[in-house]
Amino acid sequence: MTQRDGKTTNRNDGFQKQPKLIVSTSSERMNGANAPLSPLAQNPKPLAQKRSQAKMASPNSDQPPKKPPKTAWWERLSLRNKAIICAIAIAVVPSAIVGISTYISGIIGVAIGTFLSVIVEIAIAIFLVQYLIRPILSVASAVKHLEGGKLDTRIKVETEDEFGILGTSINQLADRLQILLAEKEAVARQDRLLSN
């Protein structure tokens, strides 16, 4: 503590006494004036050492300096840029919505069209299968009846294609079998009459 002009001041308040700097101009030095150099000019190393020691002694020296708080990108924009962004949004968003809805309705239209065409194709396929399989099924049932001994079974021939030819051949085969069976029964009756 020192006393000056009747006031008491505390010299030991954490501040170091700064050395007095004596500044000389370059012309004085060039003219040979013996002006003393400032302590910093005489030896710059002690000041750098004091600064590094002060940094090391500070309690937050190992922590990075605090960054200013982040603000939202919108808040950092100027009023002009905000107006431009809003104008673009007002112009683009409705057309984007219309475009997306048109695209989605197009996809829905394609999906509905695909679904309906699949239904129609299935109906056509069922009709064609029934039309093409009907003669095969009638031939198969006639052959089963003939196999069971019903030789009077005949196939109704409606076409002259391969199915018609097959039906006609099966009908002729049934006729021959019927004739052969009748001849066999006649021979068997004659044998019984002759044997009696």
Describe this structure in words.
Helix content is 66%, strand content 3%. With 196 residues, the chain is mostly helical. The chain has a domain at 77-195. It has a two-stranded antiparallel sheet. The longest helix is centred in the middle third of the chain and has 69 residues, at 79-147. The chain is rod-shaped.
Provide a concise account of the structure shown.
It contains six helices and two strands. With 196 residues, the chain is mainly α.
Stretches where pLDDT falls below 50 for ≥5 residues? none
Q: Can you write the helix and strand succession as a string?
A: EEHHHHHH
- The gyration radius over C-alpha positions equals 59 Å
**Tally of extended strands?**
2
C-alpha end-to-end distance: 168 Å
Task: Give the proportion of residues in helices.
Answer: 55-70%
State which percent range the strand residues make up.
under 5%
